[in-house]
Automatic annotation (TrEMBL):
Single GO MF descriptor: mismatched DNA binding
Protein name: Uncharacterized protein
Pfam families: HATPase_c_3
Superkingdom per UniProt: Eukaryota
Species name: Cherax quadricarinatus (Australian red claw crayfish)
Chain segments annotated as transmembrane: none
CDD domains per the UniProt record, alphabetical: HATPase_MutL-MLH-PMS-like (cd16926)
Phylogenetic lineage: Eukaryota, Metazoa, Ecdysozoa, Arthropoda, Crustacea
One Gene Ontology term, aspect cellular component: MutLalpha complex
InterPro entries: DNA_mismatch_repair_CS, HATPase_C_sf, MutL/Mlh/PMS, MutL/Mlh/Pms-like
The family this protein is said to belong to: Belongs to the DNA mismatch repair MutL/HexB family.
Length: 280
């Protein structure tokens, strides 16, 4: 009985101590904040691929290759033939809220690119081991860059590369043990969602060749999806889903409303453009 009473007393003391500690509101250290926030920017394998493909499209790439090893658990790599990264941008490329797309808040109105907030590469640094090989069109050789989990440039060395950029991620979500375990456990589902997202960019990106391959543990290479840089969405649909799927589609043609309808809504047509409608 006495022993039981002592154990209960110890538990009460521990609970009281925990309660006292809980009352102390303290700032979370910057490294933990960075990981928490990064985990809200890049949620899945699909999000990681989406962000990297969008960066390639923003760089005016006409050829984008997505390469995965073990469905993305070991390696995710996106390579393009875009304009590359200038040397003056090496330091700020992976830092939080660093971007070349905005100078002030008013610039948001004119943003015409996919990425502009400067969060994707910074978040991927926090969630994986990130390395970049890039060559700007103004440079004669490429540069390999390695960053730490805070987005700070660690090493820089000259390498051979054609104009463009390759971003490699090893051990995605490895800095978040619980998320990493769930990621590995549900990798087939994650991979399936990634493919659906990639299909979307394959369809809408006319004039851009997009390929995705996966290498399994035995080195076997599987082509997941491949387009040929067709000039129309219809041709892209044929590359992704097959010619039979295209034959069952109907082409949508946009036509201007009649004069009576335009007058009813207070609109007019100038040079073939409907006035009074503002795009968002």
């Amino acid at each position: 009985m006495a022993g039981d009473a002592a154990e209960v007393g110890d538990e009460v003391t521990e609970v009281a101590g925990a309660s006292e500690a809980a009352k102390c509101i303290k700032a979370i250290d910057k490294t933990t904040v960075h990981r928490i926030c990064s985990g809200q920017v890049v949620l899945t394998l699909a999000t990681a691929v989406k962000e990297l493909v969008e960066n390639s499209l923003d760089a005016s790439a006409t050829s984008i290759e997505v390469r995965l090893r073990d469905h993305g658990t070991t390696l995710l790599e996106v390579s393009d033939n875009g304009k590359g990264v200038e040397e003056c941008d090496f330091e700020g490329l992976t830092l939080k809220h660093h971007t070349s797309k905005l100078q002030d808040f008013g610039d948001l109105v004119g943003v015409k690119t996919y990425g502009f907030r400067g969060e994707a590469l910074s978040s991927l640094c926090a969630l994986s081991d990130l390395a970049i090989i890039t060559r700007h069109f103004s440079q004669e050789v490429g540069t390999k860059l390695e960053y730490d989990h805070n987005g700070k440039l660690l090493t820089k060395m000259a390498v051979s590369r054609q104009v463009g950029t390759t971003v490699s991620l090893q051990g995605l979500f490895s800095t978040l043990p619980v998320r990493h375990k769930e990621f590995q456990r549900n990798i087939k589902k994650e991979f399936g969602k990634m493919i659906q997202i990639l299909y979307s960019y394959c369809l809408i990106s006319t004039g851009v060749r997009i390929t995705c391959t996966n290498h399994d543990g035995k080195g076997k290479k599987t082509v997941v999806v491949s387009t040929s840089g067709h000039p129309t969405v219809k041709d892209n649909i044929s590359s992704v889903f097959g010619a039979r799927q295209v034959s069952s589609l109907l082409e949508f043609q946009q036509k201007t409303a009649s004069a009576d309808v335009l007058a009813e809504y207070g609109m007019d047509v100038t040079d073939g453009t409907v006035q009074g409608i503002q795009p968002y």
